[in-house]
Amino acid sequence: MVPSRWKFDHFQPCDPSTVSADHVTFMTVFFAVSLEAFLWGAGTAIGELPPYFVARAASMAGGQSEELEEMLEEANKDKSWMN
User: What is the C-alpha to C-alpha distance for residues 37 and 79, in angstroms, rounded to an integer?
Assistant: First the structure.
């Protein structure tokens, strides 16, 4: 029988003798996921470095991106009706 996403009749009830009376505390969960959370954050930070260095190199070279120029032109057009 293939398990259904919406029906749970294929699950058997837990054996009461194997169920632990321990409570799951916040710190238990925190320590269980702390390494993964740290690695996820570190990976995200490392993924932000290439765009930063590209933008920094363009800034140091005195260049300005075409996308930024288009945004500035659109902003100036939007302000022109106010005068």
Answer: 44
